[in-house]
Specification:
Blueprint lengths: L3 H23 L7 H12 L1 E4 L2 E4 H32 L1 H25 L2 H20 L9
Amino acid sequence: MKPSLPLRVAAILALVAALGHTLLFLTYRPTHGPDEIVVVNAMQTHIFSFGGFLHSYWQLYFGYELFVTISCLVACAILWQLANLSTTNPLAIRPIILVLFLGEVATAILMFKFFFTIPIVVHTATALCLALALVALKPQSAPAA
């Protein structure tokens, strides 16, 4: 298998993660009863000083969500570029893919611990794609003399 294929699939999965995070957050409405409504209202209305700025928990939550979206979009672009480089300079990109793989493994573990099925599947699949790319980029042994 050429390494460009799992890298492109990983790039598409990063795009799916960006879209999923953003759409889920922007369309969020409390639907789990009155206790959830109280919590969300408190997050939106309680203002406090944090790092020298006045914010609500909801503003911090919203800002972090946008940060996650941007991070996923950046990962998508990087993975797409790495797929292009995999044909011209495969050994040079292995360390980059290894770092991205380790990051996705850590993210998948966090998803298992704190989130739900869809992001678990997306980030586990992304880690698997990066593992496949690493295997496909494995240095070939030199022919015997």
